[in-house]
Design brief:
Shape: globular
Strand content: 15-25%
Number of strands: 16
Strand order of the largest sheet: 5-6-10-7-13-14-15-16
Order of helices and strands: HEEEEEEEEEHEEEHHEHEHEHEH
Helix content: 25-40%
Oligomer: single chain
Distance between the termini: 133 Å
Radius of gyration: 41 Å
């Protein structure tokens, strides 16, 4: 009887637990239906943090991890190109730099690219980086007379000219029956019938970093009076260069001369050169070496001649013997009518002037060609590599 009562009691207790659980679920659902639904919280965007500015790095503290166009990509330091290889590539930043030759060699061991035949075709074609041609004329008086004359001068100003930078200056003098335009933008003919302008050679050499950008001054040897032309004497050309043309160049263009007076020009003579072809070579010897050595340190003589005894006497005179000569470059074509004259000048002058040494600051070169602009296009290319 006790066992049956205990079983009944356990059964009733189990039914009560089930009933309570069911009532609890119903109560919870009733409460959920009664309360308004609570919306799910919206996802919030994490605000983007402002990009950190690159740390300020001074060139002294920067390791210069990479260069672009010669400047460090991190701190902007401009590479000074301390060393370069024989191809002209800087060993630090990889940029192409210009070789500078002393005694016929660059510090990297390279030698000038001396050509004997016509230059590659691209030198006889316009270059995308073209220098500007500026024309100028002024009034003077013919030497020894009172005849008023006009002197014509043209300037080659290199591409991307920067008046804040100093430039070397080369004065070029033309030959007979040509003009001040001949060395710059006159249309000239090569042996193979092609036409070109000499400035294309300069443009290309500068663009390819074969030479530093430079200013070229081309002065006419002819003095104009109405319809008459008078050939300038050597003395007059020297006076025009020293008294008017060089001061004007230094005043209105950026050169290494700190002023346009004679003293400033003479102090910068290492950065001034003079040269010429045919009769322009005669002027280079007489007007340049003999009368203007305090103003010019370098001389380019193509297919000309000179009174060599007078040249030697002038260079060895008390007035001029203390002026160093940076470069004397003479050249002619192998079939050039002036080859013998130019060659004789070189081998007469160099052994008798102590500060000229063949193969160091004095060079004589022969290329293919005659007395023409094909020859002179080759030799100006050769000479410009030595010049500054």
């Amino acid at each position: 009887m006790k066992k049956h009562g205990t079983a009944v009691f356990a059964l009733l207790f189990l039914l009560m637990l089930c009933l309570g659980a069911g009532l609890g679920v119903l109560a919870a659902r009733w409460q959920e239906a009664k309360s308004p639904a609570t919306p799910a919280p919206e996802a919030q965007e994490t605000p983007a943090s402002a990009p950190e500015s690159p740390p300020s790095v001074s060139p002294e503290d920067c390791g210069h991890p990479a260069y672009e166009n010669g400047a460090c990509v991190l701190c902007g330091h401009v590479c000074e190109h301390p060393f370069h290889d024989t191809e002209g590539l800087c060993l630090l930043c990889g940029e192409k730099v210009v070789h500078h030759y002393i005694n016929g060699y660059c510090s990297c061991g390279a030698q000038p690219d001396l050509r004997r035949s016509l230059l590659p075709d691209r030198f006889y074609e316009p270059c995308g980086e073209e220098g500007a041609i500026v024309n100028w004329s002024y009034e003077s008086v013919q030497w020894g007379t009172e005849i008023p004359v006009t002197v014509n001068v043209d300037f080659y100003v290199p591409y991307d000219y920067d008046p804040a930078k100093p430039y070397n200056v080369l004065v070029l003098l033309h030959g007979l029956r040509t003009t001040e335009e001949s060395w710059l933008d006159e249309t000239l003919e090569l042996w193979d019938g092609r036409f070109f302008e000499m400035r294309w050679v300069y443009d290309r050499m500068i663009a390819e970093k074969l030479i530093d950008p430079l200013i070229i001054v081309s002065a006419s040897q002819y003095l104009v009076h109405g319809n008459t032309q008078y050939k300038s004497s050597y003395e007059q050309m020297a006076a025009e260069l020293q008294g008017t043309i060089l001061p004007y160049t230094a005043q209105f263009l950026s050169t290494y001369a700190e002023g346009c007076d004679a003293a400033s020009l003479m102090l910068a003579r290492e950065h001034f050169a003079i040269g010429g072809n045919s009769w322009g070579s005669y002027y280079t010897y007489d007007t340049g070496m003999c009368q203007s050595l305090p103003y010019f340190a370098s001389f380019l003589c193509f297919s000309g001649d000179a009174a060599t005894a007078y040249v030697v006497q002038s260079l060895e005179s008390d007035q001029l013997r203390d002026y160093p000569i940076r470069l004397y470059y003479a050249a002619a074509g192998d079939t050039d009518v002036a080859r013998d004259g130019e060659e004789k000048c070189f081998y007469d002058i160099v052994p008798r002037v102590g500060r000229l040494v063949d193969g160091q600051n004095a060079f004589y070169h022969v290329c293919e060609g005659g007395h023409d602009w094909g020859t002179w296009s080759i030799e100006i290319y050769n000479a410009l590599q030595f010049l500054f």
